[in-house]
Amino acid sequence: MIVITGATGNLGKGVIDNLIQKCGPHQLIASVRDLHKASFYQEKGVSVRKGSFDCIDDLKTAFEGASQVLIVSANTLGEEALRLHRNAIDAAKQAGVKRILYTSHMGAREGSLFAPADQHAGTEAHLAKSGVAYTSLRHGFYAESCLNMIGDGLKSGDLHTPEDGPVSWTARSDLAQADAEIIIDSENWNGATLPLTASQAWTMADIAALASDITGRRIRHVVVSDQDWLDSKMAAGMPKIYAELLLGSFQASRRGDFATTHPALENLLSRPAKTMRDVLAAFLQDDHGQ
Q: How many Cβ atoms are within 10 Å of 289's Cβ, its own excluded?
């Protein structure tokens, strides 16, 4: 049996949909916090179990009888994220799981200026010490995260960002398909994967130019100071912790932390990965038609 945590999230759903096509639904278990939100899985023939990263005992029950568990990283920050990931890893080990897969980040490194990358490095270290066979899925930076960060600026035509560096933005749907491939063939994927990224890295200036080409109207990119950008986000109502998190992503990109590209993802997909043009075109389609 294969357990997928975070099964009602976008990535978890994508992984399960791909696995259904590859191995059928009856080998799959969706682990979720809220059983009511996962009732649609029962119609697909996928088993559903309650599992919260806050409760090791619940997780042990959710993971019972599983040969593999995919731990989708928690949507939280700091020591809380590390604690929840440790809970999931420890529960999988205690439940006798043979292999643990974890959704990490291609920029995972201790002390990263981008806080989640530091957290991923800490989780990877705990995985390595667990004594259980594991695969750390080093995902490229989600292209959808880029749209969340700058989508309003692209649509308004006036994009203000701190100084940045190239980022190999990668479509979540491609990563979900690749994760499913690795789960099916997990014995050949030990330790941390190569970076699972799209084939090109883009700066914010590149993205503004690309969006201008897609929409047929000029989208201006302006570089502002870190402090001015931080102040503007907080003035617009963004909590300081999240504004600082996003600023850290720009600071880390300047250092080249997210610039790497690698063919590993496309090799898994057996096709070209989605490009940032593909992602932007879908996002900007309303403007494109004007």
A: 7
Share the mean pLDDT of the chain. Answer: 94
Q: How many CB atoms lie within 10 A of CB 134?
A: 24
| Domains recognised in the chain with CATH numbers | 2-140+172-192 (3.40.50.720)
Residue 98 phi, psi (nearest 5): -85, -30
Quick one: pLDDT at residue 288? Answer: 46
Is residue 289 over pLDDT 60?
no
CA distance 137 to 279: 22
Q: Which helix (H) or strand (E) holds 181?
A: helix 172-184
User: Model confidence at 280, in pLDDT bands (50, 70, 90)?
Assistant: very high
Structure tokens at 113: 């200026």
Q: Report yes or no: 47 and 32 within 8 Å, Cβ to Cβ.
A: no
What does the pLDDT look like over 37-64, one tens digit per residue?
Answer: 998 998 899 999 999 999 999 999 999 9
Longest dimension (CA), the chain: 57
